[in-house]
Amino acid sequence: MSSVEYHYPVIGRKGTGGIFDRLPIQTLEKDHPYQFALFILAFNAIQQRPDAPQVVEEPAATFMEIASIHGKPYVEWAGDRNKDISADYSANDKKDTNPVPSRFGGYCNHGAVVFPTWHRPYVMLIEQSIGNIAEKLAQDIEANNPHENGVWIKAAKELRFPYWDWAGKDVPENGLPPVLYEEKVEIMAIGGKKQIVHNPLSYFSYVGGVPSDFSDEKDDSTGQVAYFSKWQRTYRYASSTPDPEGSRTDLLQKTFKAGANDLRRRVAQLFTFNDDENSAIAWDDFSNHTAESKRDIDFINRGSLEGVHDTVHILLGGNGQMAYPDYAGFDPIFFLHHSNVDRLFALWEWCYTEYWMGSGYEQDGEQYPWTQARGTYAQVYNEQLLPDGALQPFRTGQRDYWTSSQARFLHKQSYPKYYSFPEFEGIKVDQAAVSSQERASARKRVQAYYDFDPQTKAKQVTSQAWKHLPVPNKEDPAVPSDHTVIPHYRTFGVYVKLPEHAYNRSYSFQLHHKGNAHSSPQLVGTITVFARPDHSPCKACAVRREAGSIVRGLIPIPPELIESIIRSNGGGESGVSFDQTLAHIKGEFVGRLVDATGSELAGAEGGLEVTQIPQHRAAARRVTPVEISLVSAAVAEHVEDKNRPVYLCDWQHHNSIFNGGWLATHKDSE
């Protein structure tokens, strides 16, 4: 609590004359030189660099303050000073620090249904801060250079915070664009000249020194250290030293490219929800990686927006701030990442207008509320989450807190946000669809863009090899009456459930294919636990820390890989059963648990006939994945309208992949 009441409202780019698009960062740099120049100059200004324009007038709008909202330091944001908010986190209060896990002291909402809606005003805040500075810079330029009139101010008013589509078609080949990591950048200057300035997207140097509650994270087994208490700036894939020379961009690029195809497939899966889902449960599945409404018996899963987001954090961070929730907000790339997360949210809510969190969900006739299990700086443990609940610390122009209901949608009938995104596969998110048919057709195009197109894939596979795969007949109640099932074709995935605090830090499950006569060894996909360390007073609390805290996800298996496995094991010859094919698929997979730096923590061999790991070498129960199972679904297409998206049905659970147990390859797994 504060002695002085002060509120800095988040109103976005209100007063700039309209709704303008957030552009891809590459487009902003290449095609909008005046906007890009103002964006870079203004971003440098709010980072308070000594060589940047000194025009920041609101302490709450500096980058240091905005970044600190997400996690550490666990303090009240300068833009929301309150005298009477009793839920404030305190590092000196045992009710916040002594529970296991301890209460989260940042404001961000993770593992909850408000994950997409909370981050929307957060990105609007930095958009507002940069935009306001850009306008002041533009006014000064035109006032002192009359021949530049009509150019800079117009560019400033149209400027919106850019995004980077980390699942774009070019990413598997190109990785990150240079503008996201090069430390210098060329921008437009007065008179059409060019100048080289510091690139504020590459890293951020802390203002006033490293915050006092930043602490190092050390792996005693490998000696790897993230020196958060000593690093004066942000890094990506930093060397384990208190004074790295810089980010290891080559390792970042290599790692990101390797994971890019999986990101594309997982984004596509987000748009495969059918039209007849339960509204609240569909929202829960999509919005967050915890999926509070899921029961132990539930396995149908399309992954979640938060789950894909988690993996991007680890891929971008390595031994750096982006891989740790407490520090991620200080890396400038965080906001370009979240601008893209917001774009995907906008596309999804445009396609699935009726799916929404509501006041809770129903199971077996009982009503259950949504909750924020871990608490935040402004929320107590297990606080109920409602559509009209406060998204602290963000206040509207009326000084009330933003709500999830207000954060929904970008169309003209929604609460004003003053930004949109460029048209994507026929979707303009600031213009509501006129019919369910329009939304459905667009959904199919989004799926195809991100490489989910089973109707085309089914024609490309070897029909002889797939002919033994079972599918339901048209009369099956799982198949809609106006659909027909694609014969001898199923889509496969790996359903993953991981204990959130198994390693007391971020970690990932990686699914690898061993390779066969028709396919090279490859990383198939990743599910990430994006978790903060919880330094509890006793290590014996680790088991209790796990109770009820599970991260869920789905790794889609490319049909080309399924084809190679079938062909390498008989090619669907007469007599090969579906059960045998399932065993072949499992037998060609390897599982790895790895930390944010890629160091292996535990490993497992897939298949039914693998040797059981001896108990003295097996990973401890507290770190062992709760479930990693093979699942599949049949694919039904509309009888008449081939432009409608497919309908996934006849979901089947094919049991565990790693039956031999997990080998502890790191002391933290023992």
UniProtKB/TrEMBL annotation:
Its EC number is 1.14.18.1. It is an enzyme of class 1 (oxidoreductase). The lineage of its organism: Eukaryota, Fungi, Dikarya, Basidiomycota, Agaricomycotina. It catalyses: L-tyrosine + O2 = L-dopaquinone + H2O; 2 L-dopa + O2 = 2 L-dopaquinone + 2 H2O. InterPro entries: Di-copper_centre_dom_sf, Tyrosinase/Hemocyanin, Tyrosinase_Cu-bd. Transmembrane segments: none annotated. It comes from Suillus plorans. Belongs to the tyrosinase family. It comes from the Eukaryota. This is tyrosinase. Keywords: Copper, Melanin biosynthesis, Metal-binding. GO terms for biological process: melanin biosynthetic process. Signal peptide: none annotated. GO terms for molecular function: metal ion binding; tyrosinase activity. The keyword Metal-binding applies. Residues 110-127, 331-342 form the Tyrosinase copper-binding domain.
